[in-house]
Amino acid sequence: MRASNADRERFAQILHNALGEGRITVEELEERLDTVYAAKTLKDLEPVVADLPGVTATPGGAIQPAQTQAVAGPDSRIGGTAGSQMSFAFMSGASRKGSWVVPPQHTSVAFWGGVDIDLRNARFAVKNSTITAVAVMGGIDIVVPDDIVVDVSGIGIMGGFELNDRSERPAPPAGAPVVKINGFAFWGGVTVIRKPRDKPTKQIEE
Q1: Which residue did the predictor score with more confidence, 140 or 81?
Q2: Residue 80 Cα distances to 99, 115, 140, angstroms
Q3: Which pTM does this prediction carry?
Q4: Which of 12, 89, 93, 108 is the most exposed place for a label (fewest CB within 10 A)?
């Protein structure tokens, strides 16, 4: 049977629940989601969740999400008109913080300068966002709240590209926004700081 968009979303929700429970890693989540959204039939979806709870077999043997499992609703922070797709600092400084909407793709470049990005009071235009950070003889600091999924995969060349985890939360809740941070630092540094969310403020995008 051909898979519908609703079928794919149900299986994707099982994967996000599994991440929140610590059953799979962020890398495994991304790999499995690629398979889910590329699936053409229900049979294509079966192997993705075969080793996870929250599924049941139909009389015909096909695997389906369990109807009795509680499914988290969409995160209230997802949605809105996307903000700036670029933050650039050349021998100066730039910032993106407060109440702004993170676009699906945001590129941050610091050349002999510094960029500060804070997502703790941000919204997200879509569930899965990517921030590409490039620091050349400069620095980029990205603060993320501990109730979203963050995946850091940048490279440091005579510089640093690192995640500084200051939270004791083991995993974000199911259905939380997902932010992938990649890029590189050359004679500079990109630091992603994961920590608890501050109380909401009325600060607007700078």
Answers
A1: 140
A2: 11, 24, 25
A3: 0.62
A4: 93
- Which has more confidence, 107 or 11? 107
Candidate from 31-40, 150-159, 167-176, 194-203 with smallest mean pLDDT? 194-203
Q: What angle do CA 176, 181, 183 make, to 5 degrees?
A: 170
Nearest to 43 by CA among 11, 12, 2: 2
Query: For 115-151, what is each residue's pLDDT tens digit?
Result: 999 999 999 998 899 999 999 999 999 999 999 989 9
Alpha-carbon gap, residue 3 to 113, rounded angstroms: 49
- SS3 assignment, position 9: helix
Of residues 100, 99, 94, the one with CA closest to residue 82: 100
Q: Cα angle at 33 between 32 and 34, to 5 degrees?
A: 90
User: What does the alpha-carbon distance between residue 8 and residue 30 come to, in Å, rounded to a whole number?
Assistant: 14
CA atoms of 88 and 193, how far apart (whole Å): 20
| DSSP character at residue 53 | S
> Residue 85 CB: number of other CB atoms within 10 A?
11
Give, for 36, the enclosing helix (H) or strand (E).
helix 26-38
